[in-house]
Design brief:
Order of helices and strands: EEEEHHHHEEEEEHEHHEHEEE
Distance between the termini: 27 Å
Shape: flat
Largest sheet: 8 strands, antiparallel
Radius of gyration: 23 Å
Helix content: 25-40%
Oligomer: single chain
Number of helices: 8
Low-confidence stretches: none
Structural class: alpha+beta
Mean pLDDT: 93
Number of strands: 14
């Protein structure tokens, strides 16, 4: 059995995108997310967690204790019913109105959900709607990814050499062309931050094996998330600050300042990670804090 986590961790994730849309905004016609005041690109924490979930689901193939709660086409209430049946409390769900049922078995159902679903014990979940499995505050939290420099959004006209219906074909007299739009940014380097709480990890059962899987996910999640819309996305660096204690030995924001990603030539538009310099300041590191850099 894997050991429980005894240390606090903070981390910085650096990734980039070339000729792609890293995270479309549904409120803006799926354009790349942008901070309207600064022009910097944004990638939500929800987007990054989705890629972690997909990586775990792909590599573990829904193995015991590594299933995913929030996945495509899931009906969440079914998992809640499974939890109560598994702990021998299925009788509490009888009747037509199952809303907010659970009684004094909510705690057991919550523990079962944490054990079965990797993303519940990692990121947490609100499972009190409908059949009540409680709420879980996840030990792993992440911020938005924000680009180092302002990004430019480009709109491309694209042509499909086919039409969808016979009526369209007749209207075009056999030309059969369909016009469309595609939005990308030429290039951007994004920085996101994250935190791992040992105290919350011990509450959800998030252990050292789970943590190592999470680090692997951050390093490899883009390799299995390719699409025409996202272009070339890659994890460039993962900087992990390991504290010797559960409470931590230094404020996270002070540690994050030690990671520097700067453009080498400010007069040149960047088009690859080679156009940036990357450095981690290890001088005068607070006592009880060590740095791990991946990949």
């Amino acid at each position: 059995m894997s050991e429980m986590i005894r240390n606090r961790y903070d981390f910085t994730l650096i990734f980039d995108v070339r000729d792609g849309n890293p995270n479309g905004d549904p409120d803006a016609g799926n354009l790349p997310r942008i901070d309207p005041e600064t022009g910097h690109g944004l990638v939500t924490d929800v987007c990054l967690k989705r890629k972690v979930r997909n990586y775990v689901q792909l590599t573990k193939k829904e193995q015991q204790d590594f299933d995913i709660y929030i996945k495509e086409k899931a009906v969440l209430i079914r998992a809640h019913e499974e939890a109560y049946n598994a702990i021998g409390a299925g009788n509490l769900l009888k009747g037509n109105d199952k809303k907010r049922k659970g009684g004094d078995k909510v705690g057991e159902a919550r523990q079962w959900m944490c054990k079965k679903f990797y993303d519940v014990r990692t990121f947490g979940a609100v499972m009190s709607l409908g059949i009540n499995c409680g709420q879980v505050r996840g030990p792993v939290q992440m911020t938005f990814g924000r680009s180092v420099d302002p990004v430019v959004t480009l709109e491309h006209s694209i042509t499909r050499m086919a039409v969808a219906t016979e009526a369209e074909a007749e209207k075009q007299q056999g030309d059969n062309r369909t016009m469309g739009r595609k939005n990308t940014i030429p290039y951007g380097v994004y920085v996101a931050h994250g935190f791992v709480s040992a105290y919350l990890a011990n509450q959800t059962g998030f252990n050292e094996d789970d943590l190592n899987l999470f680090w692997d996910s951050l390093c490899n999640m883009f390799e299995h998330d390719r699409s025409a819309a996202r272009g070339l996305m890659s994890t460039q660096k993962l900087v992990i600050f390991r504290h010797d204690s559960e409470l931590g030995n230094a404020p996270a924001h002070e540690l994050f300042k030690r990671v520097k990603v700067t453009r080498k030539d400010t007069n040149k538009s960047p088009r690859s990670f080679d156009d940036y310099s990357f450095a981690v300041d290890r001088e005068g590191l607070p006592s009880g804090v060590s740095i791990i850099t991946r990949p």
